[in-house]
Amino acid sequence: MKMKISDLINITGGTLDNEPQVQAIESATVFPSKVERGDLFFAARNEDIPAAVERGAYAVIYAGERPRDLDEEIAWIEVDSVKEAAFRLLRYVMLRKEAEVVLLRPHEESFLKMILTHKSNIAFLPREWTKAFEMILNSDQRLFVGSDRELLETITPEPIRLEEEAEGQMISDTLFRSTFKVHGYIYQQKEMAPFHLSHLLRVVDFCDREELPYSLDKIHYTRHFQPVFVDGKLESIPKGSSDRVVIFVDNLPDIVQAREYVRYQSSWARSIVLTPPKTKVENVERPYWFHTPEEAREILKNTHFNYAFVYSLDREMLKQMREERTLF
């Protein structure tokens, strides 16, 4: 990514505040430990500047006050926001290599990671902007995906979204098992909530269009919806061997859809919802509020339920309960 200092200033909107000897940079990074001689350094933290200069940075983009006792022969470029300047350069680089950025829903991202058999033609963007910047800038990939809306819309104002409609159909289902048909093949009794099928089908359509290799044989619950069947003491037991299940979810729509499913398929069942205080869940007038995992465990131990939806905690909560019993 060799670039003239003058072009760099135009792209980032910075101001050159000295008269350096260097006229161009070889590459760029936001991590001082990765700086090599001839690089541009984006100073996300000004305290990292001395280390970057010592490693051979030819130019530094910074905001605020810079150290005045460092090499005046390198280019010092002042900007209002280092992050914004970095992404201006990133957008320029992406245009040059005709890269695409795809914004996924969290469920779509989970299914895509699950079914891909090779990931050599695609890159999953991390949520930290510094790591995302580094990945795109230094990668040969042209297809980047992620589910952090704010980050991806910073990278490009209009990231690509997956098509709403995709080929496939549900054959039979329970709340925790789905049999569905895709491209003429029937996948039986997969560990997937039926209302997640639309997410999976959009991902399959995306893989087909982008010619990404995938397999649906190992479909299982995503991290967003984790059911654990339990006995009367809340000990984990094999699936389907109990009429009590704790479902750990990290999003409210899944709770709403699952409760609707239970209402129509198992009208006899009692479902409860546990959330942090003041969390509003559609069609739930009186959720059980908890401040700590310990409070959530007490609610589960002392409340009758067939389905318990626990929002914002994970299944490790039950493991911690078993450890507490062991201590005593």
Explain how this protein is built.
This protein is α/β, with parallel strands linked by helices. Among the domains are: 3-80, Udp-n-acetylmuramoylalanyl-d-glutamate--2,6- Diaminopimelate Ligase, Chain: A, domain 1 (3-Layer(aba) Sandwich), CATH 3.40.1390; 225-327, no CATH class. Helix content is 32%, strand content 21%. It is built from ten helices and 19 strands. The chain has helices at 5-12, 49-54, 82-96, 106-115, 129-138, 149-155, 197-210, 252-265, 293-302, 316-327; strands at residues 3-4, 15-16, 24-25, 28-29, 40-42, 59-62, 75-78, 100-103, 123-124, 143-146, 160-161, 169-173, 178-182, 185-190, 225-229, 245-249, 271-275, 288-289, 307-311. The strands form five sheets. The protein has a five-stranded mixed beta sheet. A five-stranded mixed beta sheet has the order 15-16-19-17-18, sandwiched between helices. It has a four-stranded parallel beta sheet with strand order 9-10-8-11, covered by helices on one side. Helix 5 (129-138) links the parallel strand 9 and strand 10. Helix 3 runs parallel beside helix 5 (129-138) and helix 4 (106-115) crosses helix 7. It is elongated, with a radius of gyration of 26 Å.
